[in-house]
């Protein structure tokens, strides 16, 4: 009978330890306002890729598992956006006017003690620059240099690398739809770096479809919907279309 309280005490201590580990592992929460006013303010001064994507790309690989990035409703600072709230060490701070890479990196450092390497900041700016290029060939040239620079800076496993690879894969498909192998390689590598980037699976599906592999295309459409449930309806339509091929 005496062993029961001891066992229970051990269980409670274990649960407390797990709780501490989880709290430490996700010590920074970055909430990005998705109110229409903030989204409009950001899109007017960027390539339109989204503030969530920009901040995700600015997180160094070593900090990726410690940061949770969330969308949120209005932060009650309308007129001063785009607005971002950072919760860290029992503190909560709202930052206004987060409309470029430098400002985003600065608030991550001030609010979350996240030090974004200069090479990563340059890469995120280059991604925006490439996105503004209408010509797929020019985009590929920029992404070729960008991917090499991230590899040289030991940032091969960064979210920015995953994003760059997906965008280069898209450009490959636009540039020459009859040669989708490079697109497939890039998008597959991107999905391995970031398993939660649903867009990678969407591009993989496009590459397989271009290769005439409908079954693999449908499989990756399903993965896209699993990672991004918001696109479930679009995925259903795509699966219906592919099933008729």
The gist of it:
This protein is an alpha+beta fold and 245 residues long. The protein has helices spanning 3-25, 36-43, 51-58, 101-112, 118-131, 136-152, 159-175, 181-193, 198-210, 214-227, 232-243; strands spanning 28-33, 67-72, 84-88, 91-95.
Describe what this molecule looks like in 3D.
The chain is of the alpha+beta class and 245 residues long. Helices cover 62% and strands 9% of the residues. A four-stranded mixed sheet has the order 2-1-3-4, covered by helices on one side. A hairpin with a 2-residue loop joins strand 3 (84-88) and strand 4 (91-95). Helix 9 packs antiparallel against helix 10 (214-227). It is globular. 36% of the residues are buried. Mean pLDDT is 86; it is low at 14-25.
Largest sheet: 4 strands, mixed
**Which stretches of 5+ consecutive residues score pLDDT under 50?**
14-25
Global mean pLDDT: 86
Report the principal-axis shape. globular
Q: Going across the major beta sheet, what is the strand order?
A: 2-1-3-4
Task: Give me the number of helical elements.
Answer: 11
Order of helices and strands: HEHHEEEHHHHHHHH
In terms of topology, how is this protein built?
Layout: H1 3-25, E1 28-33, H2 36-43, H3 51-58, E2 67-72, E3 84-88, E4 91-95, H4 101-112, H5 118-131, H6 136-152, H7 159-175, H8 181-193, H9 198-210, H10 214-227, H11 232-243
Parallel strand pairs: 1-2
Antiparallel strand pairs: 1-3, 3-4
Helix pairs in contact: 5-6, 5-7, 6-7, 7-8, 7-9, 8-9, 9-10, 10-11
